[in-house]
């Protein structure tokens, strides 16, 4: 089949009341853990690459790792997506370099500049059969090159979405309704609540249009506990309640981004082995456990949060 765009994925997800998991990849073990889960559960997936991942692992290595998934499962729908493209040049490089989907993040610009930048990327991408995600509103939190303070965060304004989508021709839209980047999303003792009223209003204004949620990791406490019991110091790491993400997946949300949960699973596995077996020095020993944790995370998300099991 080859790598696909998200167009058909999102249409089926919208109509079926589920979402596609967009999982960030940084190395072979993470790609394998995600792919093994998706193959076993027959679920479409989006493997996405941040600027930090491209800097760490290099563009060509990541593309070939993702393409290797298709050697294992030729009929599995897999999209390769650029996460948080900062400018036209980065998006162009990924479009020219084999990605089937890119995100241009102009959310830090004013409305008109965001439209101008997004439209430029859309025109270049569409001429080459690549789809584009954009963002309106700003999520708080820290993840790779994304660093937005609580003071600078802003909910998406529903009265802007129709004009933005119409003028840019973008294929999907990331919105801010209360999710947050990183593992430290909310303060202890708070009751995180996504703004479903904003989501409903956006859905009303751009019906049947694919919506994306960034910063949607739930920060599994079992992995936080393992990390902290084996030399880690993750204090007060709290994520988005999964029941709220499942509710979002039943609506217009067709893509849910998950990164921190994968990192936590991988780190928990590595720390546990290195703490309990201080004599271990073979990377295969501890990375095997980390990879298994990544698979466990993804299988849970597909079955219990996204609802995409059996949808490939």
Summarize it.
By secondary structure, this protein is of the alpha/beta class.
How would you describe the shape? globular
Strand order of the largest sheet: 1-2-3-4-5-8-10-11
| Overall pLDDT score | 93
Work out the strand percent: 15-25%
Counting helices, strands and paired strands, the structural category is alpha/beta
Q: What gyration radius follows from the Cα positions, in whole Å? A: 18 Å
Tally of alpha and pi helices: 12
**Describe the biggest sheet?**
8 strands, parallel, barrel
**What is the share of helical residues?**
40-55%
Number of strands: 11
Cα end-to-end separation: 12 Å
- Note the run of SSEs as H and E: HEHEHHEHEHEEEHEEHEHHEHH
Low-pLDDT windows of residues = 146-152
What does this structure look like?
The protein is α/β, with parallel strands linked by helices. It has twelve helices and eleven strands. The strands form two sheets. It has an eight-stranded parallel beta barrel with strand order 1-2-3-4-5-8-10-11, surrounded by ten helices. A three-stranded mixed β-sheet has the order 7-6-9, with no helix packed on it. It starts with 6 loop residues before the first helix and ends in a 6-residue tail after the last helix.
Can you tag this structure with a few keywords?
alpha/beta; three-stranded mixed beta sheet; 12 helices; 48% helix; 16% strand
Task: Describe how the helices and strands are arranged.
Elements (H helix, E strand, L loop, with lengths): L6 H10 L3 E5 L3 H14 L3 E5 L1 H7 L1 H14 L5 E8 L2 H9 L4 E4 L6 H16 L4 E6 L3 E4 L2 E3 L9 H11 L3 E4 L4 E2 L14 H10 L5 E3 L7 H9 L12 H8 L3 E6 L1 H17 L6 H24 L6
Parallel strand pairs: 1-2, 1-11, 2-3, 3-4, 4-5, 5-8, 6-9, 8-10, 10-11
Antiparallel strand pairs: 6-7
Helix pairs in contact: 2-4, 2-12, 3-4, 5-6, 7-8, 9-11, 11-12
């Amino acid at each position: 089949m080859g790598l696909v765009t998200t167009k058909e994925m999102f249409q089926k997800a919208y109509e079926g009341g589920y979402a596609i998991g967009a999982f960030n990849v940084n190395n072979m073990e993470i790609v394998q853990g995600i792919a093994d889960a998706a193959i076993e559960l027959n679920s479409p997936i989006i493997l996405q690459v941040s600027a930090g991942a491209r800097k760490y692992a290099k563009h060509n290595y990541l593309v070939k790792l993702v393409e290797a998934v298709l050697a294992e499962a030729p009929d599995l729908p897999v999209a390769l997506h650029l996460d948080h493209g900062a400018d036209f040049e980065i998006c162009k490089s990924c479009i020219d370099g084999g990605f089937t989907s890119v995100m241009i993040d102009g959310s830090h610009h004013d409305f008109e500049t965001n439209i101008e930048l997004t439209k430029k990327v859309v025109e270049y991408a569409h001429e080459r059969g690549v789809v584009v995600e954009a963002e309106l509103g700003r999520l708080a939190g820290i993840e790779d090159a994304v660093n937005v303070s609580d003071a600078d965060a802003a909910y998406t304004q529903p009265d802007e979405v129709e004009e933005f989508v119409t003028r840019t021709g973008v294929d999907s839209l990331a919105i801010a309704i209360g999710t947050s980047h990183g593992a430290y999303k909310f303060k202890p003792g708070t009751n995180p609540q996504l703004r479903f009223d904003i989501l409903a209003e956006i859905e009303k204004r751009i019906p049947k249009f694919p919506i994306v949620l960034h910063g949607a990791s739930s920060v599994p406490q079992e992995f936080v506990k393992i990390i902290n019991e084996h030399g880690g110091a993750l204090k007060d790491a709290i994520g988005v309640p999964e029941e709220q993400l499942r509710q979002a997946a039943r609506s217009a949300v067709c893509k849910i981004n998950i990164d921190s949960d994968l990192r936590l699973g991988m780190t928990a596995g590595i720390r546990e082995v290195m703490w309990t077996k201080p004599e271990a020095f073979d990377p295969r020993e501890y990375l095997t456990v980390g990879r298994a944790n990544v698979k466990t995370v993804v299988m849970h998300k597909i079955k219990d949060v996204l609802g995409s099991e059996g949808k490939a």
